[in-house]
């Protein structure tokens, strides 16, 4: 599937970093572990960028997460985009034994360690939740300065922590209503916060996930408490490409298409969407 996506013209591939969901109406589901899978995709592809959308800093000790990111960046030849967030799904935290309290405070410390190692190669840190002593990241990532960092949150406190340092930010489809107008409103709010954080207007790249319903889709039953009755993008390749063009006009520089269903047929149909965009 990854090779097909690369072949039809996608620029990037993304994996969610989750462990377990309780589904509405009962039952559970969970994906494969994200970093192991990203390493496999890095070896199986040649051109596309790769990233977690987004990695929870709570699921690994921060220095180990930096080590994983550097490894995937090296395997891919410098194609990793490192999306980072604090996580939200308490169910998987409890099930796998990770602390759920003070998630944003823990994120702030973890983010400091991760970016220091990826960008500088060495860090000493003694915080309330994490401590590393003369930690050295060797070998380092493929690119000097490490992979681009992406903030996976638009909450005020997370933006205060991340926007002074990241290269990009992301908003999930259910958090902006899956519409260009909803995205534009979030972009304006993030741009203002970025300027307050000392960045130049437009310096931090805006990205967004877009929910796309394709033939055979049955709805995304992920257990995501934020996923309400939001309308997916659907229709012909021209209809879908029109929506993506509207998102670009609203300020999105990179879009992650959340396909329902995720099948070879969906990938091939989305390749037709990409071809339509190329013709335009």
Overall description:
The structure is a single chain. The chain is α/β, with parallel strands linked by helices. It has helices at 2-8, 34-44, 62-75, 90-96, 103-120, 156-162, 173-176, 180-196, 237-249, 264-279; strands at 12-15, 21-22, 28-29, 49-52, 55-56, 82-85, 122-126, 131-136, 149-151, 168-171, 205-213, 254-260. It contains ten helices and twelve strands. It has a six-stranded parallel sheet with strand order 5-6-9-10-11-12. It has a two-stranded parallel ribbon with strand order 1-4. Helix 3 packs across helix 5 (103-120), helix 8 packs parallel to helix 9 and helix 9 packs across helix 10 (264-279).
Quick take:
The chain is α/β, with parallel strands linked by helices and 280 residues long. It contains ten helices and twelve strands.
Global morphology = globular
Total number of distinct structural domains: 1
Terminal Cα separation, in Å? 26 Å
Number-wise, the strands total 12
């Amino acid at each position: 599937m990854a090779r097909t996506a690369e072949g039809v013209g996608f620029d990037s591939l993304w994996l969610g970093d989750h462990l377990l969901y309780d589904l509405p109406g009962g039952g559970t589901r969970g994906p494969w572990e994200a970093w192991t899978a990203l390493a496999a995709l890095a070896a199986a592809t040649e051109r596309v960028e790769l990233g977690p959308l987004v990695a929870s800093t709570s699921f690994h000790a921060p220095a180990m997460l930096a080590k994983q990111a550097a490894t995937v960046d090296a395997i891919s030849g410098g194609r990793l985009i490192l999306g980072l967030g604090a996580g939200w799904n308490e169910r998987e935290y409890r099930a796998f034994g990770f602390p759920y309290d003070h998630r944003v405070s823990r994120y702030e410390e973890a983010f400091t360690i991760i970016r220091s190692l990826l960008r500088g190669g060495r860090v000493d840190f003694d915080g309330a939740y994490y401590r590393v002593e003369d930690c050295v990241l060797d070998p380092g990532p493929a690119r000097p300065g490490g992979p681009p960092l992406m903030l996976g949150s638009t909450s005020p406190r997370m933006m205060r922590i991340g926007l002074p340092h990241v290269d990009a930010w992301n908003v999930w489809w259910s958090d902006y209503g899956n519409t260009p107008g909803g995205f534009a409103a979030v972009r304006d709010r993030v741009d203002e916060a970025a300027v307050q954080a000392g960045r130049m207007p437009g310096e931090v790249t805006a990205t967004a996930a877009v929910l796309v319903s394709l033939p055979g889709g049955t709805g995304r039953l992920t257990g995501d408490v934020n996923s309400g009755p939001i309308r997916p993008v659907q229709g012909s390749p021209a209809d879908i490409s029109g929506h993506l063009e509207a998102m670009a006009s609203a300020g999105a520089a990179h879009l992650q298409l959340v396909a329902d269903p995720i099948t070879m047929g969906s990938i091939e149909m989305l390749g037709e969407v990409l071809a339509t965009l190329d013709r335009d």
